Amino acid sequence: TGECGVRLARAGAEVVGINCHFDPFRCIEGVKKMITAVKEAGFDKVHFMTQPIAFYTPDANVQGFIDLPEFPFALEPRWITRFDAARYARVAYEAGIRYIGGCCGFMAYHIRAVSEELTAERGDYLPVNCINWGKCLEKHTKPWVRARASRKYWDELNPATGRPYSSSHSKCDGWGVTVGDESLKDDTKS
Fold first, then answer.
1. What is the pLDDT, as a whole number, of residue 127?
2. Higher-confidence residue: 60 or 52?
3. Cα 157 from chain centre
4. Which has the closest alpha carbon to 24: 114, 108, 145?
5. Residue 171, CA atoms < 13 Å, CB-side half-sphere
6. pLDDT at 190
7. How far apart are CA 98 and CA 188, in angstroms?
8. Tens of pLDDT along 96-141?
């Protein structure tokens, strides 16, 4: 991954990073390798970016989420929360990544969470309809809902999928092939 970043910088790329196929935190780990290698190679004017998918992929193989058996029609249980998106923004920013976006599966609420998390870094401009970490829950009629009116609560929450028989990881398809392999050629005539 680091070597790829260096090759891109040598080719004249002004922005280097990772787009799609993997979750935010796997992409950040890859871009960190690029940052180290690119800086060690003497490229100090290169900027770094990441645009991950909005689905957790800790069990994905080298081709990312397309190798998962849930791809493409059953990825919903893997969706990151808005709070995961905020954490992604903070971790990416602290790693030196300045173009922080999203690819497949990112929704407006994910991007809003990224924007809210980096409010101070963006000159204290708050996005429209900022959730303010549950402040709206302070006046709720139920005390257990009022107890959720803090960032601490949402930062520490480990949400369940709500799917009683859902496994924590899947077994990736073992194709082990990429572009050009004979098994991928279409022999049908149009």
1. 63
2. 52
3. 18
4. 114
5. 1
6. 56
7. 46
8. 999 999 999 999 999 989 998 998 998 877 766 666 667 778 888 8
Tokens 């970490």 sit on residue = 133
Q: pTM for this one?
A: 0.83
Question: Cα separation of 118 and 112, whole Å?
Answer: 10
133 vs 113: CA distance, rounded Å: 10
Instruction: Return the bridge partners of 17, or none.
Output: 49
Name the 3-class secondary structure at 2: helix
Q: How many Å apart are CA 141 and CA 164, to the nearest integer?
A: 29
**Secondary structure of 128-190 in the HEC alphabet?**
CCCCHHHHHHCCCCCHHHHCCCCHHHHHHCCCCCCCCCCCCCCCCCCCCCCCCCHHHCCCCCC
Backbone angles phi, psi at 17, to 5 degrees: 175, -160
